[in-house]
Design a protein that fits this description.
This is Polygalacturonase. Belongs to the glycosyl hydrolase 28 family. Pfam families: Glyco_hydro_28. GO terms for molecular function: polygalacturonase activity. This protein is mostly beta strands. Helix content is 10%, strand content 45%. The chain has helices at residues 3-8, 11-26, 87-97, 191-198, 289-295, and strands at residues 28-31, 34-39, 48-53, 69-72, 106-110, 113-117, 120-121, 126-130, 134-138, 147-148, 164-165, 169-172, 175-181, 184-187, 210-213, 216-226, 233-236, 239-249, 266-277, 282-284, 299-311, 315-319, 327-347, 355-376, 394-408, 410-415, 422-434, 441-444, 446-454, 471-472. It has a 20-stranded parallel beta sheet that branches. The chain has a 4-stranded mixed beta sheet with strand order 1-2-3-30. A 4-stranded parallel beta sheet has the order 7-12-15-17. It starts with a helix and ends in a 6-residue tail after the last strand.
């Protein structure tokens, strides 16, 4: 504080300033875009310092640009009858709009109708707008989904060795991409893919419904995505991504139809989405075993707010199991989940390497969820036999608070690795109503702290192992 400013203040203003400073020291303070909140552990020892993001890391994406040139898909020969293949119409329209990339950008308008198409690539400074009643309908001919190289952080297709089918809507090395509309629909018609996967007839890994690679300044909003062959929305190696106001649907029995999977990406905001599918609603990833470690692209600065949905077989929020590039600085608040296998899940394995740290999850409501919180270090699927068995995952600094649940079969299941336990796991203000009177907690190789948790956790989560100050959910200043 500069002396001249202090002298200019009245006595009352100085007193108010001192009160504010004292309150800041005792409770919260704002610093470098964070809100810092001090808590105390159960035994009253050294405070726990939790940093919550105050800044909006996606603020610059919230005002959509007006494009200088708008065309409709039917101007390029598109026919929205659900039967005519429109792949060339999409490709030609986007190629034409690419000439406006440095002239204010272009918009491709999709009017009401059923627009059948194979895979197509986007371009920079483009808006893809689906009007109300418009559906982009994916071709069920596998030949309309070309095979492309495996991701370098995976080393092969996620399901099968070799390449992988490209996504229906794809983009690479792009900037300023907007995929939006008046609640139009993108339908992957995934049934044929699910059946081929079930009977082992696929030669390559299934394609996503939407994948963007090495891209930045991306907005995906106000749409419905249904029946993806594989993961639905997959931003990988991306930066500055806003995903909001989406409905994502797939049958509960559909295999691996994750909702949104940020992968080796940073500054990602996911907000106000409803997801109902056959796998995790959201799964944060960062590469697979030695390929992910060598590629070295972490997922970080990810904010998830106001997510709701259901899934029978999987989790509401998952981190991993592909986490070899590291996952950090994740903030999740306002999660409503029903009829799921797990509420919050961390998946890893010996050989993964990498880390998961600085995770903050708060204000969740679970209904009919078998396991509220589940961490496993035995999710042991590997891309090949070249992985390093001495590459152990490091998972720590996880803060979970304000969770309510009813019809919960198990409160917590922590299955860590000997010599590499989960540590600095904080649980606070959690109330879970059980469907059974049997054991509600299963803990092995985990160390942490708890406060106001019912039913009472296992002993490993009731003690303090060390006393240094702890910072959780640091959404780092960039």
């Amino acid at each position: 504080m500069y002396p001249s400013r202090l002298h200019a203040m009245s006595g009352t203003q100085i007193i108010l300033l001192l009160i504010l400073l004292l309150y800041c020291v005792s409770r919260t303070c704002t610093c470098h875009g964070y809100v810092e909140r001090k808590l105390r552990t159960r035994d009253g020892s050294v405070p726990v310092l939790v940093r919550l993001p105050e800044i909006d890391v996606c603020s610059k994406l919230r005002s959509l640009p007006r494009r200088s040139h708008i065309v409709s898909i039917d101007e390029f020969g598109g026919i929205g009858d659900g039967k005519t293949i429109n792949t060339h119409a999409f490709q030609n329209a986007i190629s034409y709009l690419s000439s406006y990339a440095h002239k204010g950008g272009g918009q491709l308008f999709i009017p009401p109708g059923q627009w059948l198409t194979g895979s197509f690539n986007l371009t920079s400074h483009l808006t893809l707008f689906l009007d109300k009643g418009a559906t982009i309908l994916a071709s069920q001919n596998l030949g309309d989904w070309p095979v492309v190289d495996a991701l370098p952080s995976y080393g092969r297709g996620r399901e099968l060795p070799g390449g992988r089918h490209i996504s229906l809507i794809h983009g690479s090395n792009l900037s300023d991409i907007i995929i939006t509309g008046d609640n139009g629909t993108i339908d992957g018609q995934g049934q044929v893919w699910w059946e081929l996967h079930a009977n082992g007839s696929l030669d390559y890994t299934r394609g996503h419904l939407l994948e963007l690679m090495n891209s930045r300044d991306v907005v995906i909003s106000n749409l419905t995505f249904i029946n993806s062959p594989f993961w639905t929305i997959h931003p990988v190696y991306c930066r500055n991504v806003l995903i909001n106001y989406l409905t994502i649907l797939a049958p509960f029995e559909s295999p691996n139809t994750d909702g949104i999977d940020p992968d080796s990406s940073s500054r990602v905001c996911i907000e106000d989405c409803y997801i109902e599918n056959g796998d995790d609603l959201i799964s944060i990833k960062s590469g697979w075993d030695q390929y992910g470690m060598n590629y070295g692209h972490r997922s970080s600065k990810i904010i998830i707010q106001r997510l709701s949905g259901q899934t029978r077989s999987s989790a509401g929020i998952a981190l991993g199991s592909e986490m070899s590039g590291g996952i950090s600085n994740v903030y999740v608040v306002n999660l409503k989940l029903q009829h799921a296998s797990t509420g919050i899940r961390i998946k890893s394995a010996q050989g993964r390497g990498g880390y998961i740290k600085n995770i903050y999850i708060s204000d969740a409501i679970f209904h009919n969820v078998r396991t509220a919180i589940g961490f496993t270090a035995f999710y042991g699927e590997h891309p090949d036999d070249k992985y390093d068995p001495n590459a152990f995952p490091h998972i720590h600094s996880i803060y979970i608070e304000n969770i309510q649940g009813d019809n919960i079969s198990m409160a917590g299941d922590f299955q860590g690795l000997k010599g590499y336990p989960y540590h600095d796991i904080f649980l606070r203000n959690i109330t879970l109503n059980a469907t059974t009177t049997s054991q509600m907690w299963n803990c092995s190789f985990v160390e942490g702290y708890s406060e106001s948790v019912s039913p009472e956790p296992c002993d490993e989560l009731l003690r303090r192992q060390h006393t240094q100050e702890y910072c959780s959910s640091c959404i780092e200043k960039v």
